[in-house]
Design a protein that fits this description.
5-stranded mixed beta sheet; alpha/beta
Length: 151
């Protein structure tokens, strides 16, 4: 795994990236365009096991010419690392060992809340909001990272 600064130094802004929101039951996935200007919600997958996740990510990476992975890091509001951050870190390390792409953690504090609030402003009904909340949170995470990378 690398830091966001190392990620910035390794990549041009002409590559597609994926963003992951690693939840305990579901995983939200987003993809950005080659210019890294906008992150788009892509899909949500149910979490079964880590090997299945790796296989699904490899297919997604190959089909979409992905060159890097941004993973939301659920840091506590006070900046400390809780159980969920440790779990994400463990999965991120496994992804790093299994997939030959740069992997970076990005602070995801409030990403799910922001994604939910944004969808409510767009007048999306609650059941649809909940169904797509994970991929929307992944897009929020990825958008924050690509905004940082482009500045």
């Amino acid at each position: 795994m690398i830091t966001i600064e190392e990620f910035k130094n390794k990549h041009s802004n002409k590559v597609r990236l994926i963003g992951l929101d690693l939840g305990s039951k579901r995983i939200g996935i987003s993809i950005c365009d080659e210019k890294q200007s906008i992150a788009t919600p892509f899909k949500t997958i149910n979490k079964t096991n880590t090997n299945d996740l790796i296989n699904q990510l490899k297919v997604l990476i190959n089909e979409n010419n992905i060159k890097g992975i941004i993973i939301g890091n659920p840091i506590n509001m006070d900046g400390s690392l809780g159980k969920s951050a440790q779990s994400v870190n463990d999965i991120a390390n496994y992804i790093t060992k299994s997939i030959d792409l740069p992997v970076c953690l990005w602070d995801e504090r409030l990403s799910t809340v922001a994604a939910f609030n944004l969808s409510s402003q767009l007048d999306v009904n609650v059941s649809k909001r909940e169904k797509k909340i994970d991929q929307n949170a992944a897009a929020f995470i990825l958008q924050g990272a690509i905004d940082y990378l482009n500045n």
